[in-house]
Amino acid sequence: MQDASMVGRICLVTGATSGIGRATAEGLAQRGATVWLAGRDATKGAAVRDAIRAASGNPLVEFLRADLSSQREIRTLAAELHQRTDRLHVLVNNAGGIFFRRTLTVDGIEATLALDHLAYVQLTLASLDLLTAGAPARVICVSSQAEASGRIDFADLQAERSYQAFRVYAQAKLANLLFCRALARRVADRGIVANAVTPGPVATNFGGGRGVLGRITPLLFRIIGRPVEYAAASVLRLACDPAYATVTGKAFYGERERTTSPQSYDVAIQEQLWQVSVALVGADDDARG
């Protein structure tokens, strides 16, 4: 029998055509939610949508195409959401990647920062009115244990002076936690909670691409990583379980709250990054502290 615990709940999952995002979307659909999958490949997105509908028996699964490294496409995605619904109950910020060479987006922003952090900021702020209307609502940000080695370099946030892929990735994943905690403070009075998941290596195609590292990294993750369903279970718990309805500003993996790096709890850094990030995405700060 299908789990009906999320019937009537509207959920958006980014990076939903593979890995943790797809497994999360499948779990939400199996629980009866209306699920919107966001991804950049329309053909793949349609195929995943159809597969999830068939596997879950839930027809309320749709695909929305958007390249989340593009601020214009995030604005278009948010506009489409507002056309389709007047509320949102769960937002899972999951889309991300690692770039082994410094790359700029169409907006001229370093790609790891743009996709792995700023997209979370822009889409969340653009959806705040929908989340407020859907309260009690939940925002989940997929970070990484890599945040433990991260440092926010405000003097060189886009790695113009020196680019090392894993250092830049760790900075972005630390930024996810800083953003999540700053958001949690700002939206507590709106009936919205914000939490993070910090998985270790997961058996996905993460890091796949050109060059030696682009071939080796996903192979390594498939060898040492946990099954993608394990990480998705952490996301689903935060998205669905009544026990987490009022938990906010925390990080989890598995069933346990995780203590993250000291910097991730630093309110001054959270606030400085919030202001810088809002400026970079040109967003209206509708969640001022």
Summarize the structure.
The chain is of the alpha/beta class and 289 residues long. It is built from eight helices and eight strands, in the order βαβαβαβαβαβααββα.
Write up what this structure looks like:
There is one protein chain. With 289 residues, the chain is α/β, with parallel strands linked by helices. It has one domain (10-281): NAD(P)-binding Rossmann-like Domain (Rossmann fold, 3-Layer(aba) Sandwich). The chain has 8 helices and 8 strands; from the N terminus they run βαβαβαβαβαβααββα. It has helices at 19-30, 42-56, 71-84, 111-133, 165-187, 211-224, 228-240, 267-281, and strands at 10-14, 34-39, 61-65, 90-93, 137-142, 192-197, 251-253, 256-257. Helix 5 links the parallel strand 5 (137-142) and strand 6. The longest helix is centred in the middle third of the chain and has 23 residues, at 111-133. The radius of gyration is 17 Å and the shape is globular.
